[in-house]
Amino acid sequence: MAKIKYTKGELKKQRDDLSLFSHYLPTLQLKKQQLQLKILEIRRLIEERKAAFAESNKSILKWIGLLSDARTSILSWIKPVKILYSEDNIAGVDVWVYKDVVFKEKDYDCYSTPFWVDKAIEALQQKMKLLVEIELLNKQISVLGEELRITTQRVNLFEKVKIPESVDNIRKIRIYLGDQMANAVGISKVAKKKTQTREALEAAV
């Protein structure tokens, strides 16, 4: 704790500090709450996407044996060419929001390609989209989690340190200044009494 001066100027400074801390604390508390709620929302969304991913595995099982055939390799059509996303601001924090995944255009010969390839590609592309979305959601959690950590530290600093410190400093300074004023009044009375006594003695002479 920094040393304080027991002056009227210091008293004003401490009051101004207290007013500033008290003004910003509700804003920080609101931001903390917004971040907590958003993180919970994203975690629920991640669980939903993971469940959808697990469900997509079932639809792919029927193609597993066929996909092992080297002649029907479709890897080039399930590899993302571009990931589309937008930016959003959550409680003052910029995050990436998933929109879609762009894949290579299908350019194979429909006559010479097995009939099941289209469905297999579609199923695998959907699975890839879920993976990309989950990855972006996890990045959101990471960014928002770090901001929540910093915001929580600030809330604790204001609540548990700065505001109590200012309140205590104001109390100490007011007590000190009150004592000084009381001493000054006492000294003034004594001095006045001495003056009156001296004047009375001079008048008697």
General description of the model:
The chain is mostly helical and 205 residues long. The protein is 71% helix and 11% strand. The protein has one domain: Helix Hairpins (Orthogonal Bundle).
Keywords:
Helix Hairpins; rod-shaped; 71% helix; two-stranded antiparallel ribbon; mainly alpha; 205 residues
Largest sheet: 2 strands, antiparallel
Note the gap between the termini. 60 Å
Give the H and E element order.
HHEEH
Could you tell me the mean pLDDT?
84
Biggest sheet, spatial arrangement of strands: 1-2
**Helix/strand structural class:** mainly alpha
Helix content: over 70%
* Contiguous runs where pLDDT drops below 50 for at least 5 residues: none
- Rounded to an integer in angstroms, the radius of gyration calculated over CA atoms is 37 Å
Q: What is the fold named in CATH at topology level?
A: Helix Hairpins
Quaternary structure annotation: single chain
- Tally of individual domains: 1
Q: Determine the number of helices (DSSP H or I, runs of at least 4 residues).
A: 3
* Strand portion: 5-15%
Q: Number of DSSP strands?
A: 2
**3D shape:** rod-shaped
Report the CATH architecture: Orthogonal Bundle
CATH classification class: Mainly Alpha
Brief sketch in words of this structure:
With 205 residues, the chain is mostly helical. Helix content is 71%, strand content 11%.
Question: Topology of this structure?
Answer:
Elements: H1 8-61, H2 64-67, E1 80-90, E2 93-103, H3 117-204
Antiparallel strand pairs: 1-2
Helix pairs in contact: 1-3
